[in-house]
Amino acid sequence: MLKVKLGLKGPTVSEICFGSLAISSLQGRVSEEQGREILQYAFSRGIDWVDTAELYENYSQLKPVLTRNPEMKVVSKSYAVTHQELDASLEKARKELGRDSIDIFLLHEQESHLTLKGHAAAWEGLLEAKARGQVGAIGISTHAVQGVRAGALQPGLDVIHPLINYQGLGIIDGSLGDMLEAIAFAAELGIGIYAMKVFGGGHLAAEPERAVNFIRSIPGIQAMALGMSSIPEVDYNLALLNEEPISDELRQAVLHRERKLYIADWCQGCGKCVGGCPQNALYLNDGQVCLQPERCVLCGYCGRYCPHFCLKII
């Protein structure tokens, strides 16, 4: 597994980060114990860091694996706004993950300089926690072009976790070209960058080689977080990045398993996806998007319209 350094100040890690949302109860693809087994297997194959968040509510799931493998690095994220909220989020992560220090801690989903300004007290808390040695690198995650640009200029920021894929699915404030320019700007300043939503929330999974190779072609990106919910997915993704032959059996296991449209419970009922579904398979009911399964053809077009990636083909 290729090792990379995240920018000038971030840690050295494997090129793939294990995205743990896919094994958390938030998505419900696997049991808690199955998720642990998949993460342990990924670590045995050379993936040496895991991405989580307070939102995922899976610290207890990850803790046994982290305890067995103290060299595994961990990223967590928080929506904290105040200094007090940040302190509480960090203490929760340290306690429930069984770590004195969190390797990378991010403010979750920052959209612009205005968002960061609104979280200024939390950022100050992060800077202080880093000075105390309770966190290693600090930064932000973002789905926004302006989030990347503002993050690059944030005093003390080490790492940015931006949304980026070859179709630009999920970027909330600009084009794919705009995001690429913002990432290049951040990279020139020495910021560590690891990509999220490489497969567009599952909508680009039919062309995984193209998806991975696109990210690898961007000079400013050092690594990527990939959500994996099975051992074959781990093997498949590692084969992709190691440019190894992929057997028909493995390809079938990953790309041709039974799939469905998953609607996350954090759906905000904006309705943008309803009008974007060419099959009229989606509708709003009491502020929640609902599905008529008999109409759904799993085209994935609806995912283009959701700013929060609530809709996924899994």
UniProtKB/TrEMBL annotation:
Coiled coil: none annotated. The keyword Signal does not apply. Residues 258-287, 291-314 form the 4Fe-4S ferredoxin-type domain. Keywords: Iron, Iron-sulfur, Metal-binding. SUPFAM superfamilies: 4Fe-4S ferredoxins, NAD(P)-linked oxidoreductase. InterPro entries: 4Fe4S_Fe-S-bd, 4Fe4S_Fe_S_CS, AKR2_Oxidoreductase, NAD(P)_OxRdtase_dom_sf, NADP_OxRdtase_dom. Pfam families: Aldo_ket_red (PF00248), Fer4 (PF00037). Gene3D superfamilies: 3.30.70.20, NADP-dependent oxidoreductase domain. This is Aldo/keto reductase. It comes from Dehalobacter restrictus (strain DSM 9455 / PER-K23). The lineage of its organism: Bacteria, Bacillati, Bacillota, Clostridia, Eubacteriales.
